[in-house]
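Here is one record:
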Amino acid sequence: MEKIRKRGILAVSFGTSYEDSCRQTIGALEEDFAENFPGIPVKRAFTSSVIMRIWEERGVHIPDVQDALRELAADGIEEVLIQPTHLLAGEEYEKLCAQAESLRGSFRRMDIGAPLLHTEEDLHRVADFYANHFPREEGEALVLMGHGSQHENNVVYTRLQELWAQMECGDVFLGTVEAKPDLEDVTSQLEKSGLKRAVLTPLMLVAGDHAHTDMAGAQEGSWKSVLEGKGFEVRCIVKGMGEYPEIRSLYVRHLKQLEEACRGVLYGVSVGPGDPELLTLKAVRLIQECPVLAVPRTKGENTLALSIARQAADLTGKQIVYTDFPMSRDRQVLEDNYEKIAEQLAAYLKDGLNVAMLNIGDISIYSTFSYVARKAAQAGFPVRVCAGVPSFCDIAAKTGKPLVSGTQPLMVIPAGCGDLESYLPLQGTKVLMKSGGKLGKIRKYLHENGLVKDALIASDCGLPGERFVQASAAAAEEKSSYFTTIIIRPEPN
């Protein structure tokens, strides 16, 4: 499959001269970008000339936006995703946009992502983190120090305080160093709250000079000193926002949204074992939103995944693409077919159309989607996965018997694996997937090893002809449906 244009990610930060904080925040965020976008190089740029000069004096070159873009172009990058780590679309964000725009002609495509606090949803997510998930002690107010600016978008700080009020969270207060609300506003609110203890932490990506000196410094005029002078018991957490995985995940989310806006996304959508009521809300939403549905097909019109989806979502107007999978064990035949399917779907993805590929059960368990997804990702297309309910969980629910309890291990094993008998004596519950063709052999082993009383044979779970039979029962056939699962669960001692 032909790869699409070479892409790169440029992570742009204001910068910091504090090496530890830089590594723990900006560095950690760049590592998250690299982990979530494998195969795409991530490059760093700063916008503060003062900070860049400090690093240069230490023997470390960090380019500005324009130099970083020139370096990416020289490396053969044709499409660049620029993700700022700024909190709001203020002066520094506008500066990076202007600098990047001057180099737009060096690339076939350039896209710039949003800062952290850009939409109402962004504000709600950040407000929720500090209100409900930030670690603090009982009866302790949380005081956040933001940077602030004279830019019109400084209103995001006021909006955050409004959200905490709406959440009836009267113990979180926000002030800024260089704008309103300021320390005087925070002090007034604290005094009205009746709280006598406070924890201070920066609402900034990195913990730099403002956090160490203006917030936590021992000198007169620091936020800590001022509040202690007012009679408050104060402690400081000098950690930048970038040290919290919950905050970094929001930046990753922005970068994914930026990527998705550039080209079609291939979604792997799990549709569960058969019962349409077991589709997740997310699965239904993706099926309804994606204009193209890729439907696996093995023989003739065998499209079980599509029939499940039809019962849960309106498919009117959808482009249905049948992806034929040969029933073969020849590795080269299978590999060639995965390549063919990936190219088939790429025709839609290149046009910016999102494709939902439907899969029985849960997509992470022995799904052919993973092979197609790997080829699509190698070609540069975004790939996302929607989890679902696997058949063995539905079987456990319908039979009223938990899969495991206590410290019992759980093993999921394909019945067709060559060394199946080496797994069966092990402790814990064994789930044997796709057991239909091996049923006679497995029943023989169970009888010979005294496990037959512990085994359940489930066929076509979630489908009209579903059947659950104890392996010891005379009614258990020697052969069964392709969708047959055997659960071996020895009773715990």
Notes: The mean pLDDT is 91.
